[in-house]
Model the fold of this input.
Amino acid sequence: MSSTPKLGRVQLQIMQVLWAQESATARQITDELNRQKPVGAPPIAHSTVQTLLRKLEAKGAVSHRVEERIFVFEPVHEQSEVATGAAADLLARLFNRSISGLVAHLVKHEKVSPEELDRLREVVAQAEAAQNARANATTAEGSR
Amino acid sequence: MSSTPKLGRVQLQIMQVLWAQESATARQITDELNRQKPVGAPPIAHSTVQTLLRKLEAKGAVSHRVEERIFVFEPVHEQSEVATGAAADLLARLFNRSISGLVAHLVKHEKVSPEELDRLREVVAQAEAAQNARANATTAEGSR
DNA sequence: AGGCATAATTTACTGAGGTAAACGCGGTTC
DNA sequence: GAACCGCGTTTACCTCAGTAAATTATGCCT
Done:
């Protein structure tokens, strides 16, 4: 069962680049990371990125193919898989698996824009609708 | 600037016990952790817990007082502080700071009970109400 | 051909988390 | 008072993330 592997801080940043670009060379990743880097922060060395890429490949998070004698890496897992795994982890570790508890904390302690709250309400409404639909289907199924 | 320190996996478990009990001795924590441990998992050694407690104290996550020649530990930070920090971290790392994105993932990939969805809607509604109240106050202020 | 540029690989070191045995010490027990 | 128990301390490993220089391989340019 290849459950999504655990990733470190920088490893995740690398994955972000890969998810955003579909696939990338080590050089592209290095440049991208250094471009995003906040001012004052020391740039990451290319060899560091290469090392981490090999570690990522070793644990099955990325794969590579050779193109023009250069390694082109691509992610093995979808971003959503990793994201969901990490979220479930956080939920279990600190919020007693209570999603509402987590969200309550977020809306209380993070600054949330009105638009974001709108989207949030939308998401909840949709989930509720989906659940109702499923309930109806089950009822109908059972009633005949 | 004592921002909440970063905690490891087992370190967090220790903190959970401390948060639940207000304060505890190393022995109590060891026993509690081993009680909660899933069957088949090897129990944690007492000295391991002691070591981690000292590391936690070194980084300012817990403090101790001596009572009857025995160390009694207690958490330095509130659980909510640590939880909020960790949540903000996850949000930044994987969800581009989008709370709705996070919640969308959760309701999609975790099984959410109808009650939990209810609470969730409640939380969002309350946040919205709070925001509207603030907006109204601002408008009233500006319109006269 | 010689050298430059770039890529991949090798090697090395630090720091943190986790794990736990070994050690020393004060108090209890027979 | 000798053996023992429980506690904190010391010491020691292992693993993994992160960091990056040094080395090797190879194509390309002049």
Observations:
- Residues 8-11, 44-48, 51-52, 55, 69 of chain A lie near DNA strand D (CB under 10 Å from a C1').
- Chain A has a mean pLDDT of 91.
